[in-house]
Amino acid sequence: MSNLCLILVFGLSLVVQIQNGVAFDYGAALTKSLLFYEAQRSGKLPSNQRVKWRGDSALNDGRDAGINLVGGYYDAGDNVKFGLPMAYTVTMLAWSVVEFGPQLGARHELSNALAAIKWGTDYLIKAHHSPEELYGEVGEGGSDHSCWQRPEDMTTPRTVYKIDDQHPGSDLAGETAAALAAASVAFRHSNPSYSNQLINHAKQLFEFARNHRGQYQNSIPAAGQFYSSSGYEDELLWAAAWLRQATNDNRYLEFIKSANSGGARQMFSWDDKYAGAHVLIAKGILEGKIPRNGNVEQMKKEAEEFVCNCIQRGNNNMRKTNGGVLWFLEWSNLQYVTSASFLITTYADILAKTKTSLQCPKGTVGPRDLLTFAKSQVDYILGANPKKMSYMVGFGSNYPKQVHHRGASIVSIKQSPKAVGCQEGFTEWFHKNADNPNVLEGAIVGGPDQSDQYRDARDNFQQAEPATANNAPIVGVLARLAS
Asked: Which pairing describes strands 160-164 and 319-320: parallel, antiparallel, or unpaired?
């Protein structure tokens, strides 16, 4: 008899998996997935901060340039604030609330999700210093990576970088516009005045992105080594799709109708937004909110092609490992798994709501098929994999203990207030073959390789580093599965 018992009651959206006698608690995973963002906070921490091993940090960001850039999120295991992945993170957290707000509320996590979004949007508003000026990075990857220090101890330069009308970055401005527009929808009922503030910034940023075109790494070369953008037309489409949803203004619909559809995509990520935009547009079509025309119908077709290929029912299926997880890239593969799973889960609910099905090349697919596949990917992350390891830190008992993360790998400043120097961090903590002193609850690491193998070591940054972009898409999926 199989040791895998699968209980699926889709009418109630109750999904419980028992693997080797252990049930995955999606609600607990959801709580942890949002807790991770509190560990990534930069700036002055609030009184209700739940991650107690963190302290205030980077309280002078922007001061040298005469601007207040305190706040926002550290990107991953380092202490740099990169604008492009941060804005994408905010967009996906906001989409989780827009799409799965009731489910988040049912698990008492809606307020935590909104707090995670607002920590990002408050910073993005500061970074949007004037209509055609946006700060896109604080700190510099090279100098930051040459040190191993807690954020609270940073001695590396906090250089600020921006785009403006003379130094454009349509991808950065477009993604930030999308983030603020999506967040405006998320806050529409709970905080209408803040929602209006967000939409005003989003509109300005979209015009800036559209009127001054260029890739942001040409204006901020320091970002290019770490988060180089492959283009900006996807961010313009993505921003227009969110602005249409936030405003119902036909100008954005007209932009969508004339935009490059981008073709069928092979991934959805902080760099490539086409698949996300396609799904958002397809949702509008199926709900009768976007009139059908040739170009938007093509985008719907491309959304469905992406979903069919992910679930192995298409003509150009995504690769999977023998263990069953989608395979995209050696570096931080799970980032692309969580984002694909979000789109699949969202499409499942779109089909259910509109009472339609998806015609894939390999057969008709319904909402249950999509949700089952997305669930398989989440279950892999949580421990249903050949290593029987949870790739969400702090979930279960077998999870990565030597996560590549400066703050988590050095004793808390609350416990040991003595500053840790730039190189001292390497000698005393990075190279120490011991578990991190602080558990980075909820962080999703880069994950295993194509052979489902994972090496739990701090120097294994390809696999062992978490990032805010890894977690953001799984928040909505977990909310859906936990409902």
From this structure: unpaired
Q: Could you tell me which residues come within 8 angstroms of residue 232 by beta carbon, excluding any fewer than 6 positions away? A: 169, 170, 171, 174, 209, 213, 214, 215, 216
Rounded to 10 degrees, the C-alpha dihedral 382/384/387/388 comes to 70
Distance CA 147, CA 165 (A): 34
> Model's pTM, two decimal places?
0.96
Separation between Cα atoms, residue 100 and residue 418, nearest integer Å: 43
Per-residue CA distances from 124 to 31, 47, 118, 151 (Å):
25, 22, 9, 20
Q: Which positions are annotated as active-site residues?
A: 404, 456, 465
| C-beta of residue 127 within 8 angstroms of C-beta of residue 69 | yes
The one-digit pLDDT tens for each residue of the chain (483 residues) are 333 333 333 333 334 444 443 469 999 999 999 999 999 999 999 999 999 999 999 999 999 999 999 999 999 999 999 999 999 999 999 999 999 999 999 999 999 999 999 999 999 999 999 999 999 999 999 999 999 999 999 999 999 999 999 999 999 999 999 999 999 999 999 999 999 999 999 999 999 999 999 999 999 999 999 999 999 999 999 999 999 999 999 999 999 999 999 999 999 999 999 999 999 999 999 999 999 988 999 999 999 999 999 999 999 999 999 999 999 999 999 999 999 999 999 999 999 999 999 999 999 999 999 999 999 999 999 999 999 999 999 999 999 999 999 999 999 999 999 999 999 999 999 999 999 999 999 999 999 999 999 999 999 999 999 999 999 999 999 999 999
Check if the beta carbon of residue 50 is closer than 8 Å to that of residue 39: no
Rg (the chain; Cα; Å): 21
- Report yes or no: 475 and 90 within 8 Å, Cβ to Cβ: no
